Structures are given as C-alpha cells and as structure tokens.
Amino acid sequence: MIDNKHSITYKTIGKNLKKRRKELGLSQEQVADKIPKMDRSKISDLENGKEDFVFSKLLSLCDALDFTVLDVLKKD
Asked: For labelling alongside 28, which of 7, 40, 44, 47 has CA 20 to 30 A away?
C-alpha cells in the first residue's frame, strides 16, 4: 500500500517507466523476463503507482529499460 504523502512520486515513477517501456516497444512480460523474481503483474502495479517497491527493484527496472533513476523521477 502506498502512503498518500508519496503517491504523486510513485505515480510519476510509474508513468515514466511505462513511457520508456513503450518507447522501447516492450511488453510488461518482456520487461519482467529481464528481472529475476519480478512478474508482469508487479510491473503493471509499479507502472500504475499502486505498488511500493524496494530500491534495488527500481534499479533493476531502470537497467532493463536502459534508463536512469534520475530519468524515472523527472516530472513533466
């Protein structure tokens, strides 16, 4: 469960991850296959700002998408 105090940050991260995944033409399943112990539903929850995550998972997602943590935190 996401704390309301940080929900905007989680949604920003999720939006940026989804945008990058789509730019690369990858499905959620294809991204999940690149990351140990991560499945498609977890990717979906993260992209939709519904799931809290361990920082190492965010780093793994960024690696899989050839993205940086700074990129994932950028607001429009």
From this structure: 7
**Domain 4-71 falls in which CATH fold?**
434 Repressor (Amino-terminal Domain) (1.10.260)
Q: Which two tokens stand for residue 10?
A: 């989680």
In this prediction, residues 20-34 reach a mean pLDDT of 97
Alpha-carbon distance of 32 to 4, in angstroms, equals 27
Domain edges within the chain: 4-71
3-7: long-range contacts, CB 8 A cutoff, minimum separation 24 = 7/49
- Residue (of 71, 2, 74) closest to 48 by Cα position: 2
Give 50 or 19, the one with higher predicted confidence.
Answer: 19
User: Please, what is the Cα angle at 44 between 28 and 58, to 5 degrees?
Assistant: 85
